Records
---
Amino acid sequence: MTVRIYVPRDAAAVAVGADDVALAFAQAAAARGAAIEIVRNGSRGLCWLEPMVELATAQGRIAFGPVAPADVPSLLDAMVGSGQHALRLGVTDEIPWLKRQTRLTFVRCGVVDPRSVDDYRAHGGYRGLERALTLTSDQILADVITSGLRGRGGAGFPTGIKWKTVAQAQADRKYIVCNADEGDSGTFADRMIMEGDPFVVIEGMTIAGITVGATKGYIYIRSEYPHAVEAMNAAIVAARRAGFLGKQIGGAKHEFDLEVRVGAGAYVCGEETSLLESLEGRRGIVRAKPPLPAHKGLFGRPSVINNVLSFAAIPFILDNGAKAYADFGMGRSRGTLPIQLAGNIRHGGLFETAFGVTLGELVDEIGGGTFTGRSVRAVQVGGPLGAYFPRALFDTPFDYEAFAARDGLIGHGGIVVFDDTVDMVKQARFAMEFCAIESCGKCTPCRIGSTRGVETINKIINGERVAENLAVIEDLCNTMKFGSLCALGGFTPYPVMSALKHFREDFGPAPARLQAAE
Amino acid sequence: MTVRYEPWDKARGAEIIAEHAGLEGATLVILHALQEAFGYVPEPAIPMVAEALNLSRAEVHGVFTFYHDFRKQPAGRHVLKLCRAEACQAAGGDALAARAEAKLGVSLGSTTADQRVTLEPIYCLGLCATAPSAMLDGRLVGRLDEARIDALVAEAQR
């Protein structure tokens, strides 16, 4: 009997040797004449166990990891024999870290073969689209609005309202644009879903297309994600071949097709209007709003522009109903959020759960503290534009409003953990440096403010007139926050001011340095 | 794995441009395709792109210079990109970047004198739970430590 083995193709698994492991399995099997089938799945998201290999059995899939190529011969013996091995993690679905999650968006990620439409459909894929094809545009909009889904890119704008605006707009052409320019450090959920379950993104965009009357969609993927580009392109070809993209979607009268476009290393292109400029072939310069992209978006046409995870949440909502999604969450944050645990963390990876989980639970219980074993000093939530939180704020629940109330943001749901060796004044300087490197240059507060910010923080580090320069930083941050055109300049103050507020002691000068300065 | 690029050739450049010129908003697509073929975007290609897309030369030059990815001249034989974003910083990336700089004798953003290695910063490869990470000629490497960064540098120098 053929043994089916799953070896992830996810970039994070490949980066720690998954391709070598897959090759070792093929060679070991050939050497002993064993019949095996290797499926290159996505990642289950337990990144510290990657490469995590799975064996299909009658009792469910059994996980082993982290696997090195040298482990493969003994592992293959165990797989065809007793099943016992030092790297055995047990039945995958019973691993507590996975079992504790609520996977709605990532339910198939790591489970299915990301190249196969059939496998996607066998695991509930395209049921959302099938139902959507029986509904009117208004009925779909009602579902999306009732689900409470808010834009997962960071801004948290209600997705259904955005779609409704585009649906009501009159134009000769409309577009669906997927923002896959996931530039925030500490986030990788977009990459994972595109590599592990690309059809869910395609399905979500297709539903958006038939809802608002758009026939063309673009997925703008950053160039740092070549594996995701390849996976999406392969999935688009497969979906087209199966009749899920093209002239007659699912045999119905709707037309919709997709194209992948690749970014070119500009962080600011994750900002929606900058992304539209880039898609149109121009410099990624932010546009002033209004007009909203929903009225005048790509090529001046009404456009739905959503994050990868927003589109990926749609098929579940259409398949299971708005209430099934809205039943999860707290306050005005409904449904689940795929949270990414990253940086100096013991158990890092993708953890999808309902809104309401606290920062402390995520970092200490689920994440297991730091990888280095030292104490956690700070966590940055929401990427380079997100605030640094100290332990004292670990009771903050994951909820858009709760984070805003504490001068932070959820952003794209990434958490980067730092241990007690971190120097927070350097992190504050990095935030300004990054803004200076990536500013599109259109507005002065961001373009000039970030450079002045770096200079001023350098003075603070050198112990020059610290109190006065800290006042300059605060003033500068206020100017950037309220005067910038987009979130790059507008949110850079979050990491800077939170570092200053919660870790004031790092902004010196230490008494010894003060003496030296005098 | 050394990537082999074609030498600049006007006819070949024109062919690449013509292949994509019909797309909506084709500029980035064309610049990517040119760089993929030649290893950089040769200066004579800029007016050719402008003409094909009915844009001014300044507009195309503006796009070319806006994006970090596009190169004015060929990179070294190997390109080693080190992630310098926060998650990799948290996992010890600063020290590893300094180590690579010292071993290669160049700072991030430059090429060794023998044109063998271009060392570049990159801001996030999306491998933030297996940090620090790097990319050598398109191959991803995670969970970097001193031994792994030394091996990568040695491989790039070969």
---
Amino acid sequence: MTERFEVPARLRNTSLALIAVGVLVLIIGGVTMLGGHDHHDKTRFWLVLLQNSVFFLLLTVASVFIQAAASLAQGGWIVAYKRVPEAIGANVWVFGVIAGAILIFIATAFDVDGHNTIYHWVHPHGDKILEGKSAFLNKEMFIGFTVVAIALWSFFGRKFRALSIAQESAPKNSTKIYWTVFKWSAAFLLVYALTQMSTIPWLWIMSIDAHWYSTMFSWYTFASAFVSGMSVIMLFVVYLKNQGNLEIVTKEHVHDLGKFMFAFSVFWTYVWFAQYMLIWYSNIPEETTYFKMRQHGPYSLIWYSVFIINFIMPILILMARPSKRNYFTVSFMAVVIIFGHWLDFFIMTMPGPLGGHWVLSWYELGIFAGFAGLLIFTVSNTLSKASLVPANHPLLKEAMIHQS
Amino acid sequence: MAIKKFAVACYDDEEVLFPAVKKVRNSGYKLHDVYTPFPVHGLDGALGLKETDLHVAGFIYGITGTSTAVGFMSWIFCSDWPINFGGKPHWSLPAFIPITFELTVLFAAVGMVLTFCYLNQIMPGVKKHVFHPRQTDDLFVVALEINDHTNEEEVINFLKSTNAVETSIQVAESEWWFGRWDKKEPYELA
């Protein structure tokens, strides 16, 4: 039982067009913003690249995470569309290289009139708080963690895919590779816990507001990345279903993916609110400045939109069983959730360096389109390289008769 | 409370049960219920049971909990006994959220458990007719509802043809009633 996926010309052209839009916007942005004299423009140019590359990298790594979590829990239902998260995970390195280059450039070479306006902890001199944090928050640590995390994520993403493809040609009823994946999954969860779920969001995003800190922050970033990662998987699954592929995926699997989107939207809100409420309650000035800017300041429109898009909409629309089993509602909500969490990353990164000078316009949306095009292009390419049905997988039968 | 007549068949394997249930549904006899010692996957589909409305009830209980919590706290902190907590406004919504969440969960959970018990006719101190003592042990019991016009011999023969290991005709209360387990049933078994 094998099933091949040919990348349709329309999909390829659309993704290439999106990439072209991104590159064009990047060039125009580079000429107008970096060539000008406004230091906000220079900051905006790099900050948008940082926001988008980190968002898309963390979203693709979430696919590796769901594979590892499902393998460890011996979950059978995910096997039906296993190739989709695998293909996303195998392309972590693409986004990793881009994000790594941007992040390391910003930490080492970015300079506006002698100041690093994005990571101002790079020059902590004279700042008591930053000097206190400098044992962790310094260039060497930043580069080290970035390189190691991205290398490990890319390695695991490709490893899981390679093992899964090796299973196809393994002897029938052999569970050797299955248990190998089990062990690698345990190792990946450890890596993931020490990077995405703790240190990496501190370094990449939280250090933009270097004076402020929150112990919930990494969980909050993880929730954002994970729910958008599940939405991306959902979009690919629905697309492949519409193309007539993935015959073994039924409404039951779509229903369960929808449950993930619903449940982790609620989880995101829980973490988002927990972080907010503790700071609101204790009312300490150095902590509340973070939310002062976001909730009451120039970002309040985005702040409340993020809450409505990421919580009110999923909970009202995805709560009912029929809507999780309807291809239109789930794919519509997947797009909404991805955009909502992109806005969430926007509001994590922009306020620190830009303050009231934020813009959400052609440049921001163009770069987003470019990254989305790159994701579609690379993932659909990888999908077409192997059979869509993980033949010989011990849990394949269980996945096929799955009932949610 | 309604005393009814039942034709009861017992099966000793779920692989026999499924074809039997299918035959019973095709035969035109009125299926009362099926009792199994453990939850059998796919039996609800084989019986043609429709999706339960329990979650709609859960949603209504949850909304009731939410509005109770917000309404009650708003009344206490704004009009009944306003206190200044650390200079916060009297109507401090973020501080209400955790309790609102808890009450939503509590109302939904307790309400759904009670509704579930009501729908399944189970409750402490409530009695229901047991068609076969081994239906909680190792037998799968199918009960058909029949009446005085039914040809009993024909039903029994039909049930035997579905590979039932044991068959019987029983006159029993079809609903639940209050009473203790050690009390005798309010009628004689046929």
